[in-house]
């Protein structure tokens, strides 16, 4: 397609739905959304108004491609299916294989200084129950033969985490980014600037490993895709305090934090992403700049 693909943050969809802005007056672009919009729409009180908006502006759905249940590093633009129809398919798939993100939410909140110790200690049991539900649908030859060993290792890791505590202030101090050091970074390539501060305190890690773009050598995993890396990078930026918000430690709002990361990652396949949230826009810009991606990060005022 010759016209640029512009990915819409959900807040832009909401503004159009509420008639605060009119995307239809902007021609020459293809508006893009992803399944993460469906996740946010599902949490809303009135899903239909957002689905109507996506269909009214002719938005196209971006599908992150999988190969053998792993991210392939590519994405496909899906056409010919309305947002309403695609949303119904999404709900059917979610209902067929219900996966709870509660355990991940608790872990993320804990790492950012939130959640309770009791909630964290329950994590191994929550993960164990989730794994049992998932493997129950797999053929016998694909079922892991050591689920108990995985549970015990996770329980031990979680126990050590709770002993260490989760003071975000102490974590940032240990990394050298206490008192807003990361948040006050300005200028070009802020992630690289933050790395220069952090590097002396994380010996043995490369910049890409620290920010989640490459696995640790000890894990001996296949390379991660940019999509996965961007989501991990967003989590690290919350911890170091770059364009971070207190909602990253609030269990009631962790879903929104996860959605922001997924939107930034999906938008990397497009020409640009537009948001009404300046923190979101600055974080996206920093990530794209660090990975030398051509995606532009725009704030609403850029097109107003």
In helices, the fraction of residues equals 40-55%
Assess the beta-strand content as a share of residues: 5-15%
Which class best fits the helix and strand makeup? alpha/beta
Main beta-sheet annotation: 6 strands, mixed
CA-based gyration radius: 20 Å
Succession of helices and strands: EHEHHEEHHHHHHHHHHEHE
Cα end-to-end separation:
24 Å
Rounded mean pLDDT score: 89
Protein model, in words:
A 6-stranded mixed beta sheet has the order 4-3-2-1-5-6. It has 304 residues and is α/β, with parallel strands linked by helices. The longest helix has 18 residues. The radius of gyration is 20 Å and the shape is globular. The protein starts with a strand and ends in a 5-residue tail after the last strand. Helix 2 packs antiparallel against helix 13, helix 7 packs antiparallel against helix 8 and helix 12 crosses helix 13. The mean pLDDT is 89. It contains 14 helices and 6 strands.
Which key terms come to mind for this protein?
single chain, 304 residues, alpha/beta, 6-stranded mixed beta sheet, 49% helix, globular
């Amino acid at each position: 397609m010759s016209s640029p693909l512009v990915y819409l943050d959900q807040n832009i969809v909401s503004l159009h739905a509420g008639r605060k802005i009119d995307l239809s007056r902007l021609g020459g672009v293809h508006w893009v959304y992803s399944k993460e919009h469906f996740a946010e729409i599902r949490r809303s009180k009135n899903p239909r108004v957002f689905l109507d908006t996506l269909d009214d502006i002719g938005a196209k759905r971006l599908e992150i491609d999988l190969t053998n249940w792993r991210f392939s590093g590519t994405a496909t633009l899906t056409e010919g299916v309305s947002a309403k129809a695609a949303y119904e398919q999404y709900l059917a798939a979610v209902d067929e294989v219900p996966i709870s993100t509660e355990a991940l939410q608790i872990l993320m909140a804990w790492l950012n200084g939130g959640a309770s110790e009791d909630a964290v200690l329950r994590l191994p049991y929550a993960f164990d129950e989730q794994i049992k539900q998932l493997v129950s649908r797999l053929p016998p030859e694909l079922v892991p033969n050591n689920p108990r060993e995985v549970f015990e290792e996770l329980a031990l890791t979680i126990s050590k985490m709770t002993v260490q505590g989760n003071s975000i202030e102490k974590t940032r101090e240990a990394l050298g980014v206490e008192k807003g050091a990361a948040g006050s970074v300005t200028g070009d390539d802020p992630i690289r600037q933050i790395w220069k501060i952090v590097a002396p305190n994380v010996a043995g890690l490369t910049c890409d490993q620290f920010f989640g773009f490459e696995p640790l050598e000890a894990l001996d995993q296949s390379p991660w895709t940019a999509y996965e890396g961007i989501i991990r990078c967003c989590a690290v930026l919350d911890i170091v305090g770059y364009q971070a918000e207190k909602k990253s430690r609030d269990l009631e709002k962790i879903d929104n934090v996860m959605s922001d990361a997924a939107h930034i990652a999906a938008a990397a396949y497009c020409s640009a992403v537009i948001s009404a949230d300046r923190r979101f826009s600055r974080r996206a810009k920093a990530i794209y700049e660090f990975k030398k991606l051509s995606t532009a990060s725009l704030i609403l005022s850029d097109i107003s």
